[in-house]
Specification:
Strand 8 and strand 9 (about 125-145) form a beta hairpin. This protein has strands at about 1-5, 10-15, 30-35, 40-45, 70-75, 80-85, 95-100, 110-115, 125-145, 155, 165-170, 175-180, 185, 190-195, 205-215, 225-235, 240-245, 250-260, 265-270, 275-280, 285-290, 295-300, 310-315, 325-334. The relative contact order is 0.12. Strands 3, 5, 8, 9, 11, 13, 15 and 16 form an eight-stranded mixed sheet that branches. With about 325 residues, the protein is an all-beta fold. The protein folds into three domains: about 25-60 and about 65-135, Immunoglobulins (Immunoglobulin-like, Sandwich), CATH 2.60.40; about 145-235, Immunoglobulins (Immunoglobulin-like), CATH 2.60.40; about 240-334, Sandwich (Immunoglobulin-like), CATH 2.60.40. Helices cover about 0% and strands about 55% of the residues. It is elongated.
Length: about 325
């Protein structure tokens, strides 16, 4: 820049400034998977009492001033809304940064930076975040806790790059998995892939399923990605049992079950807390003659603490893994 004289406009001297931008130090990386052609709305919590993290280069000489103001956010992508929303609703010691952005078509993604400042003037940096948003296909599934849902549960795949063999990977494989063994052949035409959903807890859970080409290197983009928004309801409890067990020791108990049918039946057994309860029969099956009563042998794992009560559900399902009865066992550890 030039410094000019007031009269005549002659240059008194010239100052040349060489600027060498440096990459920002990223404190946290966030990765979100969201349904295509929708709006992503997220609130990220920030500890309101925290001081500047790690990087001494962010601390001004003499330390941070007292009486800190609410934090403010800036985003490198002008089409993304990023703003500090003050204190959280549940905890006054926690602040929130709200993000809102438009998600594109499935298979696309966008990455941007969010800088959180200590003051309204955006003079002191608190943290820098890298946010990645991946657009995926979305499907809603409803089910009953303890039973397997197959009807209406299928995904459609297509490979625009020619025939491929893909394998599925689920973020929650114990609850949702592909109902087919081995690799799946996909091509330019639509391929329907059946899935099975077996929720173990009531409520909502977002499950991500990736279909990756066989032999692809680690980190390769999936051929197709699905976000399954799953909602599960608890079944009606048909029988209740109260049991007292000494803490720190394993225990075995039996409960009786009567076959209400006039034919021989084989029932499948499940529990919503396998870490606390298992079945003596490794096959987790119960064969009962017509109108007969059979005992279900239960094995309780040792619980480290006494004075604790746990509610454990036992699901008695039919051959298709549909729920017949739900037994609620209340265990008191003494």
């Amino acid at each position: 820049g030039d410094l000019l004289a007031e009269e005549g406009g002659d240059a008194l001297y010239r100052l040349e400034v060489e600027v060498r931008p440096k990459a920002l130090v990223v404190d946290h990386s966030f990765r979100f998977f969201h349904g295509q052609n929708d709006f992503l709305k997220k609130r990220i919590l920030v500890d309101a009492a925290a001081s500047e993290p790690g990087g001494g280069w962010r601390t001004p000489p003499g330390g941070a001033p007292a009486g800190r103001q609410p934090r403010h956010a800036w985003c490198s992508d002008s089409s993304v809304i990023a703003q500090g929303s003050g204190h959280g609703q549940s905890d006054p010691g926690v602040e929130e940064v709200a993000l809102k952005c438009r998600v594109g078509a499935a298979g696309t993604d966008r990455t941007f930076l969010v800088v959180v400042y200590e003051d309204k003037a955006c003079a002191r940096v608190f943290e820098v975040w890298r946010v990645s948003v991946h657009a995926v296909h979305r499907m809603d599934i409803q089910g009953l806790v303890g039973q397997t849902e197959r009807e209406g549960c299928s995904l459609t795949l297509r490979s625009a790059e020619g025939p491929k063999r893909v394998t599925a990977a689920s973020s929650h494989p114990l609850e949702l998995s592909v109902d087919r063994e081995g690799a799946i052949e996909v091509g330019p035409s639509l391929t329907e892939v059946p899935i099975r959903y077996t929720p173990m807890q009531p409520g909502r859970r977002d499950i991500l399923v990736h279909f990756v080409e066989e032999g692809a290197p680690p980190g390769a983009a999936p051929v197709s990605a699905w976000l399954l928004v799953c909602r599960a309801k608890a079944p009606v409890v048909s029988k209740r049992y109260d049991i007292r067990i000494r803490a720190g020791r394993p225990a075995s108990k039996k409960v009786l079950y009567t076959n209400p049918y006039s034919i021989n039946r084989i029932f499948r057994l499940r529990t919503d807390k396998p870490s606390l309860l298992s079945f003596r029969d490794a096959s987790q099956q119960l064969e009962v003659a017509p109108r007969a009563t059979q005992s279900i042998s239960l094995k309780f794992a040792p619980h480290p603490k006494g004075g604790v009560t746990e509610d454990i559900r036992v699901f008695v399902n039919d051959e298709e893994d549909k729920n017949e009865e739900c037994l609620l066992i209340t265990v008191e550890y003494v």
